[in-house]
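Action item from last week, closing it out:
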Amino acid sequence: MTDASTPRRRDAAASRRRLLEAAGQLFADRGFQRTTARDIGERAGVDPAMIARYFGGKTQLYIAVLHAEIPGTPTDFLDTARLASIVKRADRRGPGPTFQAVFRPIDDPVAQAAASEDLHRRIVAPVSERLAEDREPEPQLRAEMLTAAFLGILLARQAGTLETLAAADVDQILPLLGDILGAKAPPNGPMMPMDNPGNRHRR
């Protein structure tokens, strides 16, 4: 005997997933303020009233998107391998909502606090910790400045206003970006595109 609730559970899971994916795309493209529940529902092909049912509201959906955007451990973009991974991902999908929130403040304090916490935990903190280990002065300030420079380049590349930057191949971008940020290959790690073989002995 078939459980009639099984198809409903599957439909709910699929609808929730489509809402999450649509919201991620729209929040990245338009930001939090300019994205409405109706926009998300239309993009997902789901009744926008389901946002409240599945997530609790647009703010909670935004937080769910943040948690889904960069899963896993914090990212040290001063490691060339991690830097390459982030840049290539941003090229494929565009900078996500967490990155956008750096330059596009959110008028919802709960959503803004979530974006700030996500950014600091996943991006700023690992860089600050590395700088502190290297005995760099003012590691937190330096980490936030490097983060602003890094994300500014990614967002400018997406916007297309700086045509040469936007048109450059990712393999052109990586060595230059690595030089700007001071990224280094991990000890005994594989050589990434930004590694200069002639300079490797100096690392």
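Closing note: The mean pLDDT is 83.
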